[in-house]
Structure formats: C-alpha cells, structure tokens
Inverse folding.
C-alpha cells in the first residue's frame, strides 16, 4: 500500500516563509525605527506591491491583459472622496465601501469588455479608463477637471494628532498589502488556483478538462477591480488631493505596474514583490533623469520580455527550484 | 443649419480617424498584432514632418514625400528587428513590447521636443473654403484630408484584392504555416505590412500636425480613436473602418456642440453603444482579414 498526497512546501519555501514573517514584524514596527519620509516611501512601495500583484493575477494567471487598471485606481479614489465629502462616511470606512462599489460597477464593465477578443480587450480597457476619467472631470461636486482636496475636518477625523494619523495610514497600507497577498496566496492554493494555473498554461487544455474558463475570468476581473479600487482609495486618502489626471494616470497606475510585474516575473506570486523592489531602487537612483528614466524602464521591460519572458524571479526559480510561498504541488508517495 | 454644419465637420474629421484606424486594422489583419504604440508612431511622424519642414522650409503637405518613406523604413526595421520576435500563440509579448515602445517613443519625444505643443503651418490653404450654399462652407484643408483618407482606404482595398502583395497579406492572414509552405517569407511579409501601416501613419501624422496643435503626450488618444473606428466599423472591413471613423467623428462633433466637455465622451459612448448592441461592428466582414 502506498498513499499519495500533495506537498506544497519545500526547503526553500520554509526559509522563504520564515523570512516573510520576520520581515512582516519588522515592517509592522517601522513607526518605531523609521523616519517619517521612510514611512511614506514604504507605504508607497506597499501600494505598488499590491497593484502589481493584482495585475499579475489578472494578466499573468487569468490571461486578461488590461492596460486600463487605472480605471479602478481612480474609481476607488473618487468613490472615497465622494463618500467622505458628499455622503459623510468616515474616510476609513469609505475604503472598503469604495471597493465594493467599484466591484459592482466592474460587473457590467466586464460584460462589455469581454466582447472584445484578446488583443482588443487591452485597448478596450483603456477606453473604459478614459470614460471614467472624463466622467470624473464632469463631476463638479468633486472639483471637475481641476480636482479637489479633502477638507481638514475630515482629515482630523481619521486621528487627532498628525503623528498618529501617519502611523495609522502606514499600518493600514501594510495591512492592505498583506491582506491582498494573502488572498492571492489562498486563492492559488485552492482548487480555483489550480484552475487558474491551468488557464495560464493552456487555456484550451483547461477548458477541455471541464474548467468554466469564462466564469473564472469574470470572477478574477471583478475581484481584482475590488482590490485595485481599495488600493486606489487608500493612495489618494494619503495624498489628500485628487484630480482626474492623477487618479486616472496611465503612467502611474498601469505603465509602472506592468513594468514592475514584467521585470520581476509575470505569472508568479514572487514576481511583483521582486519587481517593486527593483523599481524603487532604480527610481531612487535615476529619478533626476526625468523622462529618460521612463525611457530606460521601457527598454529594460522590452529586453526582459524578449530575453527572459518569465522575469528575474522566473530565471532564479527555474535555475534553483526556489519558491518563497509554498504554492507548488508535488505528489509524494510513501510506502506504508 | 448649425447642426448640419456640425455633422459635416464631424464627417470630415472622421476621415482622419479612419486613417488612424486603417494602419491599425491592417497589421491586426495580417499578423494578429495590436500595436499599442500606433498612436505614438502617428505623433512621431508629425514630429519628423516638423523637423523636415523646419530644415527645408517646404510646405507640410510636400514633406510627405520624405516622411512617408522614412516611416515605412522605420516600420520595416521595427518589425524585422523587434516585433517579429514577439509573435506567437501568447498574447502577452506583443502587447507588452508595443506598450513599452509607446512609453519609449513618448518620453523620447518629450526629451527632444519638450512638452510644448506645436503645429505645422500649411499656409493660406488653411483658411480657404468652398461655399456649398445655404450659408454652409467647407474648408479646403479638411476636404483635402477627407479625400486623402478615402484615397488611402481605396488604395488599400485595391492592394489587398488586386495585387500579389495583397494576396501574400491575405495568405499569411488566413494560415501562416501554409503561407510559408507556399514559398512566402512570413517575416518579410510582416515587415512589408508594418511598413505599409506606418506609411499610412505618416500621412495621418502630417494631416494631424496641420490640423491642430500636437505634443508628445497625445499619442494614446489617437490609438484609442483608431481602435474605436475599427470596432464600430467592424473587423476586417476597410470601408467599414471609414464608416466607423465617420460615426466617431460625427458623435464627437455633436457632443462638442452640446457641451465642450462632452466632445470625447460622446465618441466613447458611441463606441460602447455599438459594442453593447452589435459587438461584431456595423459592417463586419469576418470571412476575410478578420
């Protein structure tokens, strides 16, 4: 007799998970050891890890290559400002409410966008983001084309002292990123994750094995809209100021996010995290270059796409068999 | 009468949109590639025209003699050197590489020419117009643009169905491996298709530069207009693309007439309505070049 079971972890994922847990506690304690500017930078990094992980789920796993995710960053941000300024909802409560509202809006949007096949889906999502941006610019209650700022009374309602406010926002940003990463991890470990991985590897094969590919893609699109909108809401709650051009910026919320994921490694959970670290290292050292910096990023992304389509983490993982998160499935047979 | 004028202007504008769309739909038809950098290439052509006009002191329309072959050469080189490597079953590489290209062109132009908007001056032809009765007048320049658009579409139609090159395009579009077996060099055919696409882009870019102010950041919106014209008209139909461009142009003109803020929005809404009610487009021709 032998019994067969599925093993997820290996030696590298045990080391990896330990490092991740230690890093989490160190980062959670950052208000005690980091400067104010560092806290702000870290919160920005968390937002990009979250956005890139969500885009990776959408494009890398579900095969839905969207170049219009700024639609949901901006939508979440505008919903937060609308809820807080016009409906009197507490700003922190407004974050999840904005997420839910964006998810509801994404349902008919997805129905429309899924009519466009493959490549044309990508540009279709961009049109949708433009529609949202133009509608935001028409919303005079939120400042129209020039945007608006959150009133001081609302900012104070988050926490009375400035320091407490900054700490609180930092922890929420960290918690949001961890929650999104954990949700993606949990999804990929479930049977739906197996279906998603099958879709990633071969859509036709997945369909012939009885997977309802359309339904799973639909669910992923809506779930990613939910997460992206909450990240967007928090980003602009930290900025306090909003305008259609910044909230629906294709450079900030899509180009950077795509480059991060491609350079780090698309279709792997670790990719967006590695990519974000590289992106911020590059940015800190090349930021003075202005437009040239974006140009270099574009060249690097194209080079990676052609020479190492699985990204940096893909190279490492294939070479050494490493994984940070216990996600692989290996059949283990044991004789009794 | 005011409305008639609005619609007329929209129709003439639609010719330009059809030209944005023609190059896009050509390469999608031949090699299933959606070029996200298409709009930025239009702007690149406009800047090449600007440099040519400034260096030689010629009329912008005349600069086409130089800009068209330069853009075609860029297209052939781009396809053979870069884009051919991205083609395959996977959607991601071509999308991401052309997206990267879009960012590179935009920021390269920004670095070279700054963010200030510029315009090409075509001389007195810009203000001339023809009275068509009832107080309506058509500008000579928009009319030339529209005529050029119709000529480009008609030329493409002829090339596709009446020439050996067109047969090669249709063959690779239908079945790449078999086309190769029949002795076609697919890599070369794709290079020629991109060269032709960017030749059309060159014409569109020069017309755009004469028509209105432009700056390095306006590329993506041109891509979106072209894309909307393709989808409204129906995939694979050249004359449908012209109709799609006209519908988009008229929708934008009517929107702008109602409220200046509704200019672009009205065009997007027309696109979304077509997508919702007739996702295959208004004049689809799915059997060929789809």
């Amino acid at each position: 007799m032998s019994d067969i079971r599925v093993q997820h972890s290996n030696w590298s994922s045990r080391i990896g998970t330990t490092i991740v847990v230690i890093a989490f506690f160190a980062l959670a304690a950052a208000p005690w050891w980091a400067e104010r500017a560092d806290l702000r930078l870290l919160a920005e990094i968390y937002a990009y890890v979250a956005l890139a992980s969500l885009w990776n789920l959408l494009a890398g796993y579900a095969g839905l290559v969207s170049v219009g995710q700024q639609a949901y960053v901006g939508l979440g941000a505008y919903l937060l400002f609308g809820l807080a300024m016009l409906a009197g909802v507490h700003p922190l409560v407004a974050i999840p409410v904005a997420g839910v509202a964006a998810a509801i809006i994404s349902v008919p949007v997805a129905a429309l966008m899924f009519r466009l096949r493959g490549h044309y889906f990508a540009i279709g999502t961009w049109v949708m983001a433009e529609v949202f941006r133009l509608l935001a610019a028409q919303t005079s209650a939120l400042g129209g084309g020039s945007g608006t700022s959150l009133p001081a009374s609302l900012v104070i309602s988050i926490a009375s002292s400035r320091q407490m406010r900054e700490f609180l926002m930092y922890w929420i940003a960290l918690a949001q990123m961890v929650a999104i990463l954990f949700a993606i991890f949990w999804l990929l470990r479930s049977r739906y994750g197996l279906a998603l991985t099958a879709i990633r590897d071969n859509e036709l094969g997945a369909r012939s094995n009885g997977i309802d590919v359309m339904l799973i893609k639909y669910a992923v699109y809506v779930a990613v809209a939910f997460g992206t909108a909450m990240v967007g809401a928090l980003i602009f709650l930290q900025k306090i100021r909003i305008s259609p051009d910044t909230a629906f910026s294709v450079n900030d919320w899509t180009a950077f996010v795509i480059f991060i994921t491609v350079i780090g490694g698309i279709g792997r959970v670790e990719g967006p995290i590695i990519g974000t670290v590289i992106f911020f290292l590059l940015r800190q050292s090349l930021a003075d270059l202005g437009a040239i910096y974006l140009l270099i990023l574009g060249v690097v992304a194209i080079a990676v796409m052609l020479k190492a389509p699985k990204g940096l983490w893909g190279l490492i993982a294939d070479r050494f068999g490493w994984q940070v998160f216990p996600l692989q499935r290996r059949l283990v047979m044991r004789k009794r | 009468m005011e409305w008639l004028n609005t619609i007329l202007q929209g129709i003439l504008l639609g010719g330009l949109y059809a030209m944005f769309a023609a190059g896009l739909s050509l390469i999608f038809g031949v090699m299933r590639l959606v070029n996200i950098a298409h709009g930025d290439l239009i702007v690149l052509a406009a800047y090449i025209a600007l440099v040519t006009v400034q260096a030689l002191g010629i009329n912008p329309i005349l600069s086409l003699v130089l800009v068209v072959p330069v853009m075609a050469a860029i297209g052939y080189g781009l396809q053979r050197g870069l884009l051919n490597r991205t083609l395959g079953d996977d959607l991601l590489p071509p999308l991401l590489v052309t997206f990267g290209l879009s960012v590179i062109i935009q920021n390269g132009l920004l670095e070279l020419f700054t963010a200030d908007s510029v315009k090409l001056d075509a001389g007195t032809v810009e203000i001339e117009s023809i009275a068509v009765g009832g107080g309506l007048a058509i500008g000579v320049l928009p009319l030339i643009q529209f005529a050029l658009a119709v000529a480009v579409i008609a030329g493409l139609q002829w090339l596709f169905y009446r020439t050996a090159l067109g047969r090669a395009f249709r063959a690779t579009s239908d079945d790449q491996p078999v086309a190769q077996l029949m002795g076609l060099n697919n890599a070369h055919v794709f290079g020629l298709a991109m060269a032709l696409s960017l030749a059309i882009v060159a014409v569109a870019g020069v017309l755009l530069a004469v028509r209105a102010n432009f700056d390095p950041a306006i590329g993506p919106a041109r891509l979106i207009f072209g894309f909307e014209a393709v989808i409204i008209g129906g995939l694979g139909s050249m004359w449908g693309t012209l109709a799609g461009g006209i519908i988009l142009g008229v929708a934008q003109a009517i929107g702008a007439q109602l409220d200046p803020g509704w200019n672009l929005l009205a065009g997007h809404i027309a696109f979304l309505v077509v997508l919702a009610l007739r996702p295959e487009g208004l004049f689809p021709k799915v059997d060929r070049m789809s």
User: Anything to note?
Assistant: The mean pLDDT of chain B is 90. The beta strands of chain B are 129-133, 136-139.
